Amino acid sequence: MLDPITIGLAIKAMQGAFSGIQYCCEALSDGKVQVQKIKKAAEDAKDIVKEVKGIWFLVRGLFGKPKVEQATQAPSSPSEPAKSKEVFIKHIPTEAEIVQQFVNHVGDFYHHHRELSELYDTKSEEVYAMDRPDPRDILLLSQIRHELDGAYTKVSGMMRGMNVPPQLGPLWDNFNAIYENAKEKQAARRERDRIRKQQDSWQREEEHLQRLELVMALFLMLLFVLELWAVWINSFTD
Fold first, then answer.
1. Domain-by-domain residue ranges, the chain?
2. pLDDT digits (tens, 9 = 90+) for 194-231
3. Would you tell me the crossing angle of helices 32-63 and 4-29 to the nearest 10 degrees?
4. Rounded to an integer, what distance in angstroms lies between the CA atom of residue 190 and that of residue 179?
5. Whole-model pTM above 0.85?
6. Rounded (5°) CA angle 194-198-204
7. How far is the C-alpha of 232 from the C-alpha of 192, rounded, in Å?
8. Which residues contact 104 (CB under 8 A, 6 or more apart)?
9. Does an H or E element contain 231, and which?
10. CA atoms within 13 A on the CB side of 101
11. What is each CA distance from 184 to 54, 63, 178, 179, 191, in whole angstroms?
12. How many C-beta atoms surround the C-beta of residue 111 within 10 A?
């Protein structure tokens, strides 16, 4: 029986790589990186102002007792909804970093896609060789095939759409061309290996048949020689 846990982990790994590719495309195409940079710059400016004020109060404290200011805070109405505080990340990735993340995610995606494809081919042969295959195995194979086809279709559609960022579009086109070319050459190499192995098998079988024919010929010749020897012996006894 197929291991659903292993298959589930492999599918999740491929889906995680796809989510990473999607994030890189969205981050560069929607200008989210630039927006976050502006927000972080504003936050950094506020932090600098706070630090300057803190230093100024420290200097005043050294030369005289600062006036204690008590800030009065108006009581908030219970009916007022609390404003959500905007969260700013500490590090905003650059375009080069996002492109590198994209390269890593694409590599992970195709790595897991190939692993699932090989697992599907191997397990399919095992299931087809069974006299009574388990329906659960057939369902798992169907799930793998569905995930493989769906994931590849989504990635191809996303990278060939109108909203592909210019930083990633040419990179994907080059990768896809090289990858498809490598697949074609790999398929041609496998076909040549198959033909060579088949020819080697035919040659070995031909050599085996030739050896059998030679042995049979020698055996018949030996029988003929024995027959002649027997006739010659009988000629003396008569």
1. 1-67+92-167, 189-238
2. 888 888 888 888 888 889 999 999 998 888 888 888 88
3. 80
4. 16
5. no
6. 145
7. 59
8. 20
9. helix 169-237
10. 19
11. 67, 80, 10, 9, 10
12. 13
31: left (phi over 0), alpha (psi -120 to 50) or beta: left
Q: In a 3-state reduction of DSSP, which class is residue 31?
A: coil
Sign of the C-alpha dihedral, residues 24, 92, 111, 11?
negative
| CA–CA separation, 207 and 219 (whole Å) | 18
Write out the two tokens for 139: 């369902």
Structure tokens at 124: 């399919």
CB 155 within 8 A of CB 109: yes
Q: Work out the burial of residue 152: count CB atoms within 10 Å of its CB; fewer than 13 is exposed, 13-18 middle, 19 or more buried.
A: middle
Give the span between the Cα atoms of 40 and 34, in whole angstroms: 10
Cα angle 122, 127, 130; round to 5: 130
Taking only the tens place, the pLDDT of each residue in 27-86 is 887 655 554 544 444 454 455 445 544 544 544 554 455 454 444 444 444 555 555 444
Q: What is the 3-state secondary structure (H, E, C) of 67-107?
A: CCCCCCCCCCCCCCCCCCCCCCCCCCCCHHHHHHHHHHHHH
Decide: 160 and 24 in contact? Cβ < 8 Å: no
- Quote the CA–CA distance of 211 and 3 in Å, as a whole number: 48
Q: Count Cβ atoms below 10 Å from residue 17 Cβ, excluding itself.
A: 22
